[in-house]
Amino acid sequence: MDVIWPEGRYGKLQLIGVGRDIFTHNTTQPIEVLAFNGLRVTVTADKYIEAIACEPDVGAISSLRGLPCVGGFRRGYQSLVGQGVPTQSPLVLLLDDVIGATVVSDWAWSVYPNLISAAEKQERKGRLEGMAGVCAGFRAGSSALAADGDFQYTRCAIVPSLPHPSDPDGWHPVKNHADVSLRRSRCMDVWLENHNIIIESIFQDSAVRPDGRRVAVHEYSLRAEVSLEGYVLQGLTITPHILPYPECPSALSFAYGMIGKSLPEFNTSVLTMLRREKGCTHLNDALRALSDLPEIFSNLPFQV
Fold this sequence. Notes:
The chain contains 7 helices and 9 strands; from the N terminus they run ββββαααβββββαααα.
């Protein structure tokens, strides 16, 4: 999902999302596209949904207009799942990312430091002071709370383009934006191994620098082993690659408490068990996405 500012720094945001499910028979055959969705959302400067449309079209989605991006949007779109919005489709994940991508989007301007005014830094410092306890990275005493209003940048890292030259089908076509933009990227691979389901996934928030190179502020990868019966999480390895504050990785110890839980419940149980100082918003998003597995696996064109 890309976030851009067609009207400039303090104007409306436009979110452009694309998601798909594909099946790879083997390396000699073309991929099979099982599902494809697009999403376009216009968000007002004060973070309300002004316009929203999806591909293929779902008429009910227009009812989300007027909702705040935070504090109501998730309940709004979840009420449509199964009532026009296909259950566990790429569209559901795109809708869920409207919240996180909007919240993180302002960070994209940090790669253009000359555009950040002293007044904005002071205002941001005040907001940071009120965020104590919202997540592991902002727990009491965190270095994040001592920031002077500058956007976090020193712990970020240059990252390569998503599509790999040797795997042209690995990603759908990705558009590169020349101006300020934020991109939230996800990928999840699923296969059978020794009568268990193996999942490898990545999660990344990144932005384009003035020189055209891409820099990431959040990046996780995880590997999960899941039972065929009940889709129970048997094993989990989480690797934090890029995070903005030294305290952020403390969320991992709590995340491993999800082992033994059933994946279909993750969309709810992650939000319940990994709240506030026990969780990282971005890691939680990556974990909740695992709840899609049963639907994805049931649609794969092979028999277990």
